Amino acid sequence: xxxxxxxxxxxxxxxxxxxxxxxxxxxxxxxxxxxxxxxxxxxxxxxxxxxxxxxxxxxxxxxxxxxxxxxxxxxxxxxxxxxxxxxxxxxxxxxxxxxxxxxxxxxxxxxxxxxxxxxxxxxxxxxxxxxxxxxxxxxxxxxxxxxxxxxxxxxxxxxxxxxxxxxxxxxxxxxxxxxxxxxxxxxxxxxxxxxxxxxxxxxxxxxxxxxxx
Length: 213
Prior knowledge:
Blueprint: H1 5-17, H2 48-61, E1 66-68, E2 78-83, E3 100-112, E4 117-123, E5 130-137, E6 139-145, E7 151-157, H3 159-171, E8 180-187, H4 188-195, H5 202-208
Antiparallel strand pairs: 1-2, 2-3, 3-6, 4-5, 5-8, 6-7
């Protein structure tokens, strides 16, 4: 698909209307979050770089470790990710939360590698104020393209794999709550109050009576 002038103009006007560069994040209940995103095939033309820059600013301002285009109301298969990790605590973190450099995912897809799964609390900028335990593949094979159109084909493990799954699910019209143990659902305040001593959700699972898949 060549540049779509009408679509490009609409996105450009949207960016211009938010001159600080930080865009409003769509919350659960908005239809765009439940529709599969359109394959990106050049619809934005030379506006793509500005669009991605605004997405990164919005992700960092939130703050978050990933943002998919539908979360700002644009139904294209594009996401940005970044995570500083947990520094010196990485070796002992059961989430395997290693750093993820700033990167762009265009038309990403993933498949599980092996049979191992891990269950941890995760949240979402489009479900503001809450977190829940989600069981996900420990390792995934990521395919797609980067910002320059180069093909991606790599395996990620631990928290980076979780981020990829979470953001790619957005592009499929899915929210993390679709995969969560709903008995684990917690406000951020109560997560900090009751369950923040360790990233391991085993104690929460025992007390709140939900399985760790």
